Amino acid sequence: xxxxxxPSTCETCVxxxxxxxxxxxxxxxxxxxxEDTAHWHQLGWSDLxxxxxxxxxxxxxVAKNVIFFLGDGMGIVASTAxxxxxxxxxxxxxxxxxxxxxxxxxxxxxxxxxxxxxQIPDSAATATAFFxxxxxxxxxxxxxxxxxxxxxxxxxxPKTWQTSILDWAQKAGKHTGFVTTTRVTHATPAAxxxxxxxxxxECDAKLGKLGHGCRDIAKQLVEDxxxxxxxxxxxxxxxxxxxxxxxxxxxWSCLRRDNRNLTNEWLLQKKAYGNNAQYVQNKxxxxxxxxxxxxxxxGLFSDSNMDYEIDRDDGPSGQPxxxxxxxxxxxxxxxxxxxxxxxxxxxGRIDHAMHNTQPLRALEDIVALEEAVRTALxxxxxxxxxxxxxxxxxxxxxxxxxxxxxxxxxxxxxxPSDIDNLLHTTLMFTNGIAYNHYWNGTKVTRPDVRRExxxxxxxxxxxxIPMTYETHSGDDVAAYAIGPMSHLLHRMHEQSYVAHVxxxxxxxxxxxxxxxxxxNQWGT
Length: 524
Hints:
It is built from 15 helices and 17 strands.
């Protein structure tokens, strides 16, 4: 016997049930139940008392140590999303009411990120600005504003070379180091030690015709001051240093054509002068290191960039976390009891996840950076250590719509569009690779996000403008500071101002012998 055909109304019901079966189950995190008027008045009073205390107790000490944390691409929007994500992931609550560790620092400022020739910056020019104290042109490293991208001949003139705070610290007798989840020759760390008119000239294979006569960034790191005198450098980048062989699948990486192994040359150079120099390549080797007996340390944990935190192999043969690297670096650098140290810690792959429009990976890397900051705070004396946390630039991700409090930050809003009646994710990008607008035979439309798992690893929210990669944005970024002279970050500043704050706080570089504090305010 044939089955009777379902009436049209029942067909509709079945289709709706099938759709619901394939939809993402929306996560909603609990909102605190104690947020009555008394709660907000008590919170306001507590914050007011803290502000009064901060205003009357600025730390005027000379900073023996300076630690500079950088979230590459960690703009204010990304920080806000990470704050909510952290609360939802670890606290099991709505997340909006929480905070990242640096958001509780006593001093905060905004930084303008434009470069000399562009409204929207790149990481090379921004790093040069906050490490040297002077704004420069896009894609250039450690050079002044007279040199533009690819101008090799102009960059060979030493008069165009800018000194960085790494050099200032070394000349003051401080131990120095840097930690990054990118390559150690990538734009941000390179601005500490190199002079290059093109940030991509990380190894000799990338120089090309335009770079003929110039020296690649990896070579400058190993052969020239101040790079060769860095005590600790940890990150990725075996390819540019010639420490591995194989096929460079990362378009931003390269193999050395001169067949030099710069890592071995670095080790031999240090040992020739009687130093205990070590080279480590995985987590176990790093964590087993005798930091008391180690004078110089290089750690290269991948051929190119290190893995995103959420993808990282945490086993002994895997890669160390940013916290692991930060902890070891501080232990080694802290042995300079009298003069102190300068350390840079970069969460560099936040930027890459944003370029790929993958918020989950970016937010996990921000949370990993926060763990490194907390670890550093537990290892230093804040009466003599200045800590700054900031970003070099922002991205075009936005938190949009009218999602209810406690809604999954990686989820979807509750208010459909009044044009196409579809919902959208809370996090979206104004440009990027996930630009899935299509013609349905009647009109241009977009996917129904209710049928997608928006919180899965690798999910890419919808982008408005089609591009093969997402771009930076021109937003101001925030800087958070604690420790000696942290109150110098107090309003809107040029990004280049940060180098001057660090130099003045530590009385190094241009502020050597020129860092007098107000009378009766000098710290002991």
